[in-house]
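Chapter summary example.
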Amino acid sequence: MTSIRITIKEDDKAKDLIRFLRDIDFLDIQVEENTETVDSKSIDALKSICGLWKGRRITLDSIRKKVWAHGD
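The structure predicted for these 72 residues follows.
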């Protein structure tokens, strides 16, 4: 069995295509709606902070001590 994934930019056109594909007997159509979009800039920004805390010993207790020491 072969699968393909198609991303359609316009909802109205997607509905038309799905309707058409469902009429073809040998196809099993499964529709997944993606409500969230992530652009490549967001992904790159997230990757840029990977390893930020590498080699540092940070614990919940040390964070609490610093917060209480600077609190008013």
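To summarize the output: The chain has a mean pLDDT of 81.
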